[in-house]
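Why do we bother with holo predictions? Because pocket geometry can differ from the apo form. Keep that in mind while you read this record for FFO.
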Amino acid sequence: MSIMRFMTNTDNRPVTSTSSARISYFATPSELQEPLFDSSGMSRDNIRRHVRQERNSLSTEEQSQLALIASRHMLAEIQAQSAQHVAVYLTHDGELATQKLIDALWELNINVYLPLIHPFCKGHLLFVRYDRDSVMVKNQYGISEPKLNVQHVITVEQLDMIITPMVAFDEHGNRMGMGGGYYDRTLTQVVNNKPLAVGFAHDCQEVSQVPTDFWDVPLPVIITPTRRLAI
Ligand SMILES: Nc1nc2c(c(=O)[nH]1)N(C=O)[C@@H](CNc1ccc(C(=O)N[C@@H](CCC(=O)O)C(=O)O)cc1)CN2
Ligand SMILES: Nc1ncnc2c1ncn2[C@@H]1O[C@H](COP(=O)(O)OP(=O)(O)OP(=O)(O)O)[C@@H](O)[C@H]1O
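The structure, written out:
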């Protein structure tokens, strides 16, 4: 997999930007698609429902092309960080697909981990090593996860990067997930960006503002098929 150079161009952003986010465009702004979805006044549930519908309406072909482009950017990020232990997720419900990225990481001998819903500690995740021959089981949401083997568990502080799934995000790095608070609880364990939490999502998942609560931890970096946001 080749690594694309980041193209930086902050001119002509098609939406009003009020944040201090540094945005690198992988695509030129004219190639950026839709205007930003105005989520002001909407409840978390309504935003979640709207964005889940949007990302699920992408065709299989679009999904796979966008995932390939975004995976190249994410791989460049991982290599720039010299990350050796990277938590990824397995695609669910129209999320930006990760299998091509996982294949590239395996090829490069970078250790891959997946979230596993903690069997006793409600609302918490464990991260477990994922190899080509891992035995997989489905969790309560129908998402495959490696069968729990304590020898394959890594602590959050031992990870270098957590590629974080999300439903919606905004330009301030605020994220909203599927509603379980699993990643919120994980991200409270991050100290000085170790591990670095990097959001990975389709452009159509950006909204004007994600309503936040005290437990929400903003993401320092978000990668989409067209952009890299550094907050
Ligand atoms: N790919 C992926 N894996 C992940 C997450 C994720 O967001 N994406 N998670 C991030 O936290 C955790 C799982 N959290 C999830 C929370 C809710 C649903 C879900 O589909 N909920 C249904 C309702 C199901 C029910 O009520 O039992 C729904 O909203 O339709 C899925 C995953 C761990 N693994
Ligand atoms: N750090 C935390 N400590 C305690 N409870 C939390 C924490 N984070 C989230 N929660 C609880 O989890 C519930 C779900 O949170 P929220 O809707 O923000 O999840 P989410 O961001 O959509 O999901 P996820 O983080 O799994 O992707 C909240 O109602 C809250 O009570």
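The mean pLDDT is 90.
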